[in-house]
Amino acid sequence: xxxxxxxxxxxxxxxxxxxxxxxxxxxxxxxxxxxxxxxxxxxxxxxxxxxxxxxxxxxxxxxxxxxxxxxxxxxxxxxxxxxxxxxxxxxxxxxxxxxxxxxxxxxxxxxxxxxxxxxxxxxxxxxxxxxxxxxxxxxxxxxxxxxxxxxxxxxxxxxxxxxxxxxxxxxxxxxxxxxxxxxxxxxxxxxxxxxxxxxxxxxxxxxxxxxxxxxxxxxxxxxxxxxxxxxxxxxxxxxxxxxxxxxxxxxxxxxxxxxxxxxxxxxxxxxxxxxxxxxxxxxxxxxxxxxxxxxxxxxxxxxxxxxxxxxxxxxxxxxxxxxxxxxxxxxxxxxxxxxxxxxxxxxxxxxxxxxxxxxxxxxxxxxxxxxxxxxxxxxxxxxxxxxxxxxxxxxxxxxxxxxxxxxxxxxxxxxxxxxxxxxxxxxxxxxxxxxxxxxxxxxxxxxxxxxxxxxxxxxxxxxxxxxxxxxxxxxxxxxxxxxxxxxxxxxxxxxxxxxxxxxxxxxxxxxxxxxxxxxxxxxxxxxxxx
Length: 530
Ligand code: F6P
Description:
Blueprint: H1 6-17, H2 21-24, E1 34-37, E2 40-43, H3 51-64, H4 66-75, H5 100-120, E3 130-134, H6 141-150, E4 159-163, H7 168-175, E5 183-188, H8 195-212, H9 214-217, E6 221-225, H10 228-234, E7 241-243, H11 260-266, H12 268-287, H13 294-308, E8 313-319, H14 326-338, E9 356-361, H15 370-375, E10 381-387, H16 395-414, H17 418-427, H18 432-442, E11 450-455, H19 460-481, H20 492-506, H21 515-528
The chain binds 6-O-phosphono-beta-D-fructofuranose.
The site of 6-O-phosphono-beta-D-fructofuranose has 14 residues, from loops.
């Protein structure tokens, strides 16, 4: 470790650790811990940070050159060193100026937008009532999240069904009750060689051929890919293949043609509003000094919590049914971006990198794993995501949703002592010996840190801003951790091994492997040997 500024961060942690979080959270200057950004605010007043921590982390940001890296990102410079590429996802939101690749990307986006309008108007030769979106990972999770989040904004658009898993049950479910005559199959795959997607693309084409005949089937196909030749070989017509630029990573790609099914289903207006919200967040991240830059400050907090304070996980609790896929989306965005042990550039790693991100939707988690959050022996950093428009116009239920989110955060911080529990039981008339015994189990230590991200509403702009916030936070955290957030070499090994094992299960020599794997192959051969 050669990061001079890190020593101070560790010292700040020791100092803060010695205090009760309940005391730290009695903020005299509360507003300094409400970090504002377009369409939302991050309330970090219940977090394990204070001015000492934020200033120590600013020094880390300076030493890592975060400000310059942000400028590099928006100048289209190479920020993905291991693949020698810029990262241009932000440009898809319209904030590009004079970068040749981004100008070309804008032209391609226009082509996709025109196709979306044509498809929605029935101009493909059949009315599109269903879009079967075939993709996985970054070619699937963003569209799923945004479709859930914004589908109410369009009452007339087609329904989107998603098929991602190599398990054919997924495809069967996605096509159940769907009429092939009114279905557009859209295969989204940057590489067009991801095995799960290739398999589902084949199933989809076979399904169309079976119901519509060979001649008609191809008219129901479209593709989004960086490998147009492969998409063409699958059957998509050239003018229905929309490119994905190499410099837009899968998990950052919902803004590109990867979101084509959304553009068709939600309509151009909602789509543009979604992009506009993200563009506002881009401008905030690009132009705001680090001391008041919300994505950058959240990233600094993340690095403090998960590296200096060694908190191994972040629990994302979306208190909005429409954002129920947010934890899934963030798992890929953050863990595929920053779950790495290879340092990138000077300074090396200072400790552990990205946390394990997991979560669920509020209030469902309260009746499941919140028990551990309140009374368990392990720590996680909790992130509530809620919208002031909660309840979709139903005031009483919206209030219930928000009050539950706020109550969880309050209870996690404040807890309840054994003595308080005992007093409560006694006041209910419980006998003293019973009250004492039971109170022991009702003790809630409190001191559990959380962030509340509060959106103004669940409008397309706010949702766009939220996703862009997380993208920029992830990028900034990667820089602070000293890693490259834009590659994903760790996913390759499993793909190679799966291909070998597929052949082995079919009967080929399994080669040298660990005994457990060899035995599992033998077990599967009983059913699958060809
Ligand atoms: O296996 C991981 C991954 O490469 C992700 O990074 C990507 O989002 C996903 O697979 C899908 O890849 P593709 O769009 O090339 O099918």
